[in-house]
Every structure is written in structure tokens, then in C-alpha cells.
Amino acid sequence: MRTAAACAGAVALLGGGAYAVDLSGAWASAPEVCDKVFVTKGNQISFGPKSDIHGSGFIIEGRRIRGRTAKCNLIRTREDKGIVHMVAACATDIMLSNVQFSLRVRDENTVDRIFPGMADMEMPFFRCPKAR
Prior knowledge:
The chain is built from 2 helices and 10 strands. By secondary structure, the chain is mostly beta strands. The chain has one domain (about 1-125). The strands form 2 sheets. Strands 1-4-5-6-7-8-9-10 form an 8-stranded antiparallel beta barrel. The longest helix has 8 residues, at about 1-10. Mean pLDDT is about 80; it is low at about 1-20.
């Protein structure tokens, strides 16, 4: 569930005309875990073999979002006062579901997943630098 939530939450981060910042790439729950959560082979970013024990994260590629166990596609988004509200179609190995998420973009390398109706509840994600 945590991965599906992070994956679908990432849907708001898709680059494009609606956003001032290109948010494509790999995002982790802390900057220091990027190398433990993600691996790069050639030009392909994927999750490391034990990524789930180091933190959570997601990968944004175009209109697709990948989490460790879920893949999501953006259905619709709406921006309101700096918060992006979205609906994503997500699939795991055993389930399909539509999920609603809200994200606040702090800057081009930091976003917060927020939970409307739950004051002071948020989950930060940080863009990982490109693999060297």
C-alpha cells in the first residue's frame, strides 16, 4: 500500500505544460538513500534489489509513474494554490485501482505528499541526482 501511495502520489510530478518545473526522474524519501533505492543500467533507472528496506520512492517517465510494486498512469490533475490534486490509475500484480493524491511542490527537487483533511500530515520526496 505504501508503494502504491507513493507511486500514485508521484503522478502529480509529471513534467509538462501545466507545471513550471520538469519533475521527471527518480524520487526518494530521503536524499541519502538514493543510491540504495535506485540503480541505473545504461539509461534505465530501476529499483535496487533491496530498495524497500532503505526507504520509499518512485520513478517518473512521461505520464507513467513506477513504484516498487505498482505502476500508475495519470488520469487527471488540477492545481489549486500551489497544490496539485490528481487521480491516477494504478496496477499491482494483483489489483487495479484509481487513487486520489495531492502534492505540494516546494522546489524543483523537493515535493511533499499531503493528505487533505489530516492537518500536519505530509511525506517529503527528494529528486535523486542522475547516475554518474
